Each structure stands twice: as C-alpha cells, then as structure tokens.
Amino acid sequence: MDLSNSVAIVTGSGQGLGLAYARELARCGASVVVNDVDEQTADSAVASITAEGGKACAVVGAVGSTETAQRLVDGAVDAFGRLDILVTNAGILRDKVVWKMTDEDFDQVLDVHMRGTFTCVRAAATRMREQGEGGRIICVGSPAGQRGNFGQTNYSGAKAGIVGMVRTWAMELARASITVNAVVPVAATAMTETVPFLKPYVDAMHNDEPLPGFARRELGFGPPEDAAGIVAFLAGEEASGVTGQAVGVGGDRLALWSHPEMTATAYHDGGWSPDAIATEWPHTFAERLELVGEQLPEEASTS
C-alpha cells in the first residue's frame, strides 16, 4: 500500500488503536498528524513513528469542539501542506446502567464520540473539497453501536450514530470523490481490558502468550495492530470505489456489516389496528425478532 504524498489526521492516536492506525499509515508513506489530550503521550507517539522512519507531528487537544477540529486541519496543512485522510478514532467511556447514568456521563461521551466525529469530518471535508482532489474519511464505530451493550447507553448510541452519519456523508461527498467508511474494530485496548469474557485473552497477550484460534477467529480479537491494515486499505487508491460501508476487523477476522433492512413484512388494507397486529404478529413477526447485544460463541477449543 503506497500512501506517499498523502497527509492523514488520526484523532485519539496517542496510544491503543489510534496509535496503531497512525503507525500503519506512516509505514505506508503518509505524513501523520497525531492527536491526544495529553502532550507527553502525543509526543511519545510522534517519536515512535519518526523512529521507524515515518513523518509525524502532534496537535494536542480534546476533540468535540469546532475549534479543535479546525486546529487539527490547520496543523496538517501547516506541517505538510494538505490533507487527504481523516481517521476519527478519539473516544472515552463512562459506563453505567441507564438508571444510574448522569447527564454528564451521557454528554461527555456524546461530545467526544459523536460531536467530535461530526466537527472533525466537517472541517476535513471542507478542506478536501477546497483541494478538489478527493479524500478518504474513516470513522471508527464499535460492535456496541451495531448491537447494543449492557451499561453503554451513551457509547452504543454514539457509535450507532456515527455509522448513520457515515452513510449520509458517503452520499453527500461522493461528487467530490471523497469516500466515507466506518471501521468496527475489536482489539485489546484500555476499553476492552475490563470485559470479563475477554480477560483471559488480554492476560495472555500481556504475558506474550499466543492467542488461541478461537479468540482470533471466532471472536475476531487480537492486538490493536491487527485492526490497522483495514484503515490503510480504505485510505488507499485500491478502495476508491468503497464508500458508505461498515467494515469489522480484529484478530484474523475481516467482515462486512450489513445495513439495516426490513426482515419481515405484512400488509393490511386500510392500515393496522392493534387487534389486526395482534392477529398477524405470531404468524409473520414473532419468529423474526432480532437479538440484542453481542452473541458470543462458546469456546469449543483453545487450539
């Protein structure tokens, strides 16, 4: 993958998945703007990229505001002359069940994930359209946004909203040759280390032990680096015809998420009364109800 002469912004790229994305883009030749809320973390990430022969600079700040989004775009242009790729990865967690979630818990997560994605994409799309040479926008979703997750009203809602915005932006920016896609990663990060089901696999990686095939294939789980290749692919020329998609990645698994579709349909002349629905429901809809949450497979083997 050759991304030479391309310039990328990766939000929340001081560590974890964001750093993996930034390093992979740099390895493919892109100049990268690293972003983190902590200056030391951002500088360390830049150093790790330049030590490998890549080009990078840092813009410190919390995403969410229009001002931070514009500083990121201006930082890319000032340092490297242009902007070709945006990866919106920055995120936080404030997990609580709905009856315990405060307004602040909700607003903080929505501000970083959803508003931060919106403001950064708006600023980047404006710059890319002005350049007139197309571009690549890659927004980071989550399985929680696709299926929901206990205790994550704010996070699930934001991630679902991001994928909805991606589909809209793919339509709006098509004439400008700007593709917009969502990546739905699963990886060992600070956000997943507390998930009880994944703890044995996280512990194994911390101990430099190989992950079993079940984790890497059935769960699609591995280190952040496993999820970075799809970002570089979507940023490249080979993906010029890919837009409006949600692509799952992690471990040894690469997957395409479907868009929501009507799965069962019935018709009733004159519209549907409650009694008519009650009569029809058991025959047409009852067996087609969707599951909620991740349906994790049982581990059949550790090999």
Automatic annotation (TrEMBL):
Listed GO MF terms: oxidoreductase activity
Keyword annotations: Oxidoreductase
Ketoreductase domain ranges (all copies): 6-194
PANTHER family xref list: DEHYDROGENASES, SHORT CHAIN, SCP2 DOMAIN-CONTAINING PROTEIN
Family designation: Belongs to the short-chain dehydrogenases/reductases (SDR) family.
Protein name per Swiss-Prot or TrEMBL: SDR family oxidoreductase
Species assigned in the record: Allosaccharopolyspora coralli
